[in-house]
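Team,

Forwarding the record for the chain on the shared tracking sheet. I've put the sequence and predicted structure together so nobody has to dig through attachments.
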Amino acid sequence: MNNRKTIIIAEAGVNHNGSFELACRLVDAAADAGADYVKFQTFRTENLVTRSVGAADYQKRNCNAERQFQMLKNLELTFGEFRHLADYCRTRGIGFLSTPFDRESTDFLASLGMDYMKIPSGELTNLPYLRHAAATRIPPIISTGMSTLSDVEGALSVFLDAGFSRSEIILLHCTTQYPTPFGDVNLRAIETLRNAFGVQTGYSDHTEGIEVPVAAVALGAAVIEKHFTLDRNMEGPDHKASLEPSQLSAMVASIRNIEAALGSGIKHVADSERENIRAARKSIVAAEPIKKGEAFSENNLTVKRPGTGISPMMWDDVIGRTAAYDFDPDDLIRL
């Protein structure tokens, strides 16, 4: 049983709406909630999309965008602002992460010395991008939304070929829909990825609420990533599928409770229940007056609480033996 602490990534993404001040407030909220990392998204729009590409349905719904280019341009932060954000994270005692979406952003983020390089689901089949990310030598956390096992195998092979060991790589099961319907979550895929590739696995969640990521921890997720925002009613592509700060705090607390509850897997008497043996278990007692020298029988013995005497599991050993003492009804039998 792996008792290692689950890594919780609070995904701020682009929920700063292009505002550095708002990004700092998101760092504060993630740190206050007890997350291990706060993660953003770093991109140069010109390197990410063509000017003509249409917006996804959820982007149209949530920010009235017909084209991705201008929507994304409004959500950019500068490299300098990201550098300040990384510094601010250190002052707040929370790890800084950001997902790069192009080579220039990958090189910049690598210069910040992040603990992990987050690979988004949309880049899972982008071989030049994957090779460039692998060349940073930063351990990858790879989201696997919109993919088959064959897609995942192809991406994973890039990092293995670059010299990463399987112990350095984390795969996140993910469903790329905002929000994700519960029927499309397929949490058991966490174990499928683990068994198929022999790497650590986790879960990147886009459902509403906190129950699904908490359940993922019970299934052995090593990493949980969850979008959050300061206000779900703000305009932007991801706010509607994000937690607000109080919910993020509740998710972190619930995950830590589940970690404690999972335990070692060894069946034993818990310290907290040991005293209840006396009150809940039973012992062999006299059912009627028994005189010294009288044989114990099915008629003069019974079983009652407390559990401080001879266990009823010794019943067959006691029947037929001779009483060494006088017993009144309800006296614990002594041999």
